[in-house]
Amino acid sequence: MLVHKVFPVSIFEFRLENFKEINEKIEKYIYEQKKIDPEGIIRSNSGGWHSKIFDLKNVNELLPLIDFSKRCVKCVFDGYNWEFVPEKINFIGMWSIINPPGSFNIKHTHPNSLLSAAYYVKAKKKSGPIAFFDPKHVSVMRHPKIKEFNELSAEHISFEPEEGKLFLFPAYLEHQVNKNKSDEDRIVISFNIDAY
Question: What is the pTM assigned to this prediction?
Answer without folding.
Answer: 0.95
